[in-house]
Amino acid sequence: MSVTIKDIAKAAGVSHTTVSRALKGNPVISAQTTERIQELAQQMGYIPSAVAQSLLSRQTWTIGMVVTTIADPFVVQVVEGVEKVAQAANYSVFLATSHNNSDQEMAVVETLHRRRVDAIIVTSSRVGSLYSSQLDQIQVPIVLINNQEEGEYLRSVAADDRQGAQLAVEYLISLGHRRIGYLGVTDRPKSNRRRLAGYQTALTDTGIALDPSLMVHPPAKTDFERGQAELEKFLAAQTTAIFCYNDAVAVGLLVACRQRGIAVPGQLSVVGFDDIEMAQYVTPALTTIAQPLLTLGQQAMEMTLRLLDGQDVQNQSLACELVARETTGKPSSN
Q: Are strands 321-323 and 287-290 parallel, antiparallel or unpaired?
């Protein structure tokens, strides 16, 4: 059985109130008695009750974090960034999953609140404006990472989707591509819309007419399956390069190309988005747009700490970078 304050009091021959005060370093207790009791507590293996401490301080030193799924490679570095800042500030992080479902996400947020976490961080959030009234009623800070709902939610950190997409397509244009496809998704509407807008801006700024047949959003179950689904449609439209919504979609496309015998980048150039760890290990290594995943997590946790400290915060947008690898080259017709 665990050692209690009463056990220490009995061993020390003092009251449990004296032990409690000595363990907290209360100056009411003499330095000699405090030292003796603290040494005895250590020898007996006493572990303070986090529940009892939280009831006294009204603070649990825990952060609830909602992710889409722990299988999402995007999540790994974001969580690492959150934990790095949290641990330095003596906070623990509890993970929960939403599975890309807004109702489940809100239910998880409410559950974490009932568990008395001090703040909540939500990745790829769909609750921002959709459940704004409910969020306002939750009396702990909530920070969203890459909010997926339209409307602004003050307390959000996001990668600049439009800037990153524009960077990707401008790079393909610089290589000589003119028939450039966009392979998007249907279940993350806000970021998809912004990446599509960046794709379109890069084309129109260069004087390339937009072709609706080159903008495809397959209704598949997973991003990997989306990448595999529409290769034939792009080939029929004489596409020489494809910008994919994310790296998982791009990897699915690379698999489809290998199965179909399409050389990458000899016959088709491919660009992803995110720069997940897998991107550098697939063959050929994937050219992609790097979201600052670690920084997203760090900034979200730093914003959370400022909110817990009673400070005002503003939304943050982080720039993306191009990482050129082996899946891009000049079109074969050049």
A: antiparallel
Give me the domains of the chain, ranges plus CATH numbers: 5-48 (1.10.260.40), 60-159+293-317 (3.40.50.2300), 161-292 (3.40.50.2300)
188 neighbors 124 (Cβ within 8 angstroms):
yes
Go through the chain and tell me how many residues it has. Answer: 334
- Cβ-based neighbours of 43, under 8 Å, separated by 6 or more: none
The phi, psi pair for 142, rounded to 5°, reads -125, 125
User: Between helices 16-23 and 31-43, what is the axis angle to 10°?
Assistant: 90
The whole-model pTM stands at 0.74
Question: Would residue 115 be called left, alpha or beta, if left means φ above 0 and alpha means ψ between -120 and 50 degrees?
Answer: alpha
- pLDDT (tens, 9 = 90+) of the chain, 334 residues, equals 678 888 888 999 999 889 888 887 888 889 999 999 989 988 888 877 655 555 454 677 899 998 888 777 778 889 999 999 999 998 999 998 887 777 787 888 888 888 888 998 988 765 555 555 666 666 788 898 887 665 556 688 999 999 999 999 999 999 999 999 999 998 888 889 999 999 999 999 999 999 999 999 998 778 889 999 889 999 999 999 999 999 999 999 999 999 999 999 999 999 999 998 889 999 999 999 999 999 999 999 999 999 998 898 888 999 999 999 999 999 986 4
Q: How far apart are CA 150 and CA 195, in angstroms?
A: 14
